[in-house]
Amino acid sequence: MAIKKSELYSSLWASCDELRGGMDASQYKDYVLVMLFIKYVSDKYAEVPFAPIQIPPGASFRDMVALKGQADIGDQINKKIIAPLANANKLADMPDFNDAAKLGSGKEMVDRLTNLIAIFENKALDFSKNRADGDDILGDAYEYLMRHFATESGKSKGQFYTPAEVSRIMAKIIGIGGAGTTNDTTVYDPTCGSGSLLLKVGDAAKADVTLYGQEKDAATSGLARMNMILHDNPGALIMQGNTLADPKFKDGEALKTFDYVVANPPFSDKRWGTGLDPLHDPFGRFQTFGAPPAKQGDYAYLLHIVRSLKSTGKGACILPHGVLFRGNAEADIRRNLVRRGYLKGIIGLPANLFYGTGIPACIVVIDKEDAQARRGIFMVDASGGYIKDGPKNRLREQDIHKIVDVFTRQDGSDPKYARMVGLAEIEKNDYNLNLPRYIDSSEAEDRQDIEGHLKGGIPVADVEALSRYWAVCPRLKASLFKARRPGYLDLAVEKSAIKSTIHGHAEFAAFMAGIDVHFATWCAQSAAVLKTLEPGFHPKDLIEEMSESLLYAFADRPLLDPYDIYQHLLDYWAETMQDDCYLIAADGWRAETYRVIETDKKGKQKDKGWACDLVPKRYLVARYFAAEQVAIEQLGADLEAAAAELAELEEEHGGEDGVFAGFDKINAAGVKERIREIGKLGGKDADAADELAVLEQWLQLAANEAALKKRLRDAEAELDALAYAHYPRLGEAEIKSFVVDDKWLAALDAAIHGEMDRVSQSLTRRVKELAERYETPLPQMAGRVAELEARVGRHLEKMGFAWK
């Protein structure tokens, strides 16, 4: 059975535990990723003639396995594996596997490296069939590890990784992948880090474009080279060096120019000018627009990008918000860039998104091709769309899609989110591009109506503000509100009946039914496609097509946000459906059971039963053994009732003078012993007779509970055996029905209905809030306060206190 993506990730992350204690994440990542690299290239290219990666004899992962347990394992890995591989493939700055300061010395090093190798020996981690067509399971695992390394590395250590979500946005908004994208298209990242951003742009190109990258940090540039190979881009050119002082990609004495340039440079680099005289830059990067300030390098990188673009080139750069409004030299550069027409757009991102800093950043989009005709800059304030993910914020799939959609279409229909800002308006603001000057994304204040508070009544303006609901259900408003006086309304039903009035209204019921039919139509179409999947299909292509069709299907549905619907599908994909699809792509529609073996820290194994990933037991039971499941649930309810009755008896007679007061622990042996003691008294004591009745009742209840436990265990074991025996009899059509209908689409159906429920809950909550806000006018409230004050005064007077 093919390994699930989630299991691959957890296996690789487990390898980090072997190293975690001895060094910082920014260091131990090197060892784990090099091990991943060696395993991958050995599986894919060992003994393959003319392979893009050379595996010298004796330097494969299999040869590394042979070194396990040897006293000099670290030195042998360096000499026999790392050095030959690095020399054959021009890979510099590989980590030292014999570094006692990081890996420990003696037995500690031997055990640590042996265990690390053993993790990668897992037979499921076979990358020989890893695909290079967009379903690169290993490349995704690499991204997973890089994100976790960046998270653990802490402040200033995340320079080797750009969040994948931001990389995907940049890859899409620059327009690569269109009709003009060919194998001759070039993409460049002047501060490429580990290469994740560069690779995302390459993926979006849908063609074998040529990738170029330069990275200042030697170790990180080595990671980038390995990353290119792991993502089946061995021809990518990654150079090491300071991009500003010593750019490596040149045409003669001038900078090489590219079709697309993307970058996530270090924010506000204070040492950008080291080794460089900005006023006499040999590459002319600062002559046209001006020299950046000595202690702020943001525009130095941006101007390097501008200079590195062809006359029709397009680029995107992540920069701190300060570049949009800072003055002096940066203001001059900004003015010149705007006047030249190079700035196509600005996208404001949420704060705390990047691993090296918590400050908010923006994406500056550059387009030379249409510079002369440009009459404005398209601005997007996407700072409010994210979720919390541990210590950082993270863009959701719906946030990414919305940004790309709005920017690509230049859609200014929601001026609180995005708008095209004309050059005249920008000039009026002295070329200050700070987004809040042009986009007011703040929430409208919920205003309090003074007359409503004084005289009572819900302002008509507040009710009309709910117009999106009345557009769908125009007569619902009259069912909820009635006239009070001009400009003010009263609630037409009791507050407790608001929800039932909304749900029971014919128009609202019709709306909900319409959504049900609409979704059912989409489900039927999707099910037909899903049930035709064959081994070898591409899961990433599937989820892209499926999610886009769902987004399109709900694009014109009122009251529901199509991006919320889209997010539910993508969440379920990440949680469950992705693993299922990779299993089907590898093995077909096979519902195979397997034993679940749990290994403790001492290496002892315990059988925890069985499972089936593609068709979990609960789906098969629900369809074929529903009666048995109902019987088990009834036994469970009976057992709970019996346990509650027993606990109630113990509590009733467990006080200081109760029957069970003298028991250290109430159990059958102790109760029977006490009964024998009472029997020896001859039954002459009335109190003893009462105690005996309670003890005998306890024994009866305990026996009933024990019998129910046994019946429940037996019933569960019988059902377990019935279900286990039924799996081999499942046909492919049945398996497809289970997976597609009962599992995938049923989960999505529940999520959609959750969104529909939120529509009614939102309206109910707002109507109730307005009703409560204005239901008690101020004079009535004041009178009530006076009444209560007088009542308190009378009580105090009776108690002998004066109240004034």
From TrEMBL:
Keywords: Methyltransferase, Restriction system, S-adenosyl-L-methionine, Transferase. GO terms for biological process: methylation. It catalyses: a 2'-deoxyadenosine in DNA + S-adenosyl-L-methionine = an N(6)-methyl-2'-deoxyadenosine in DNA + S-adenosyl-L-homocysteine + H(+). Residues 10-120 form the N6 adenine-specific DNA methyltransferase N-terminal domain. Residues 135-446 form the DNA methylase adenine-specific domain. One of its GO terms (molecular function) is methyltransferase activity. Its EC number is 2.1.1.72. Belongs to the N(4)/N(6)-methyltransferase family. PANTHER family: SLR6095 PROTEIN, TYPE I RESTRICTION ENZYME MJAVIII METHYLASE SUBUNIT. This is site-specific DNA-methyltransferase (adenine-specific). It comes from Aromatoleum bremense. The lineage of its organism: Bacteria, Pseudomonadati, Pseudomonadota, Betaproteobacteria, Rhodocyclales.
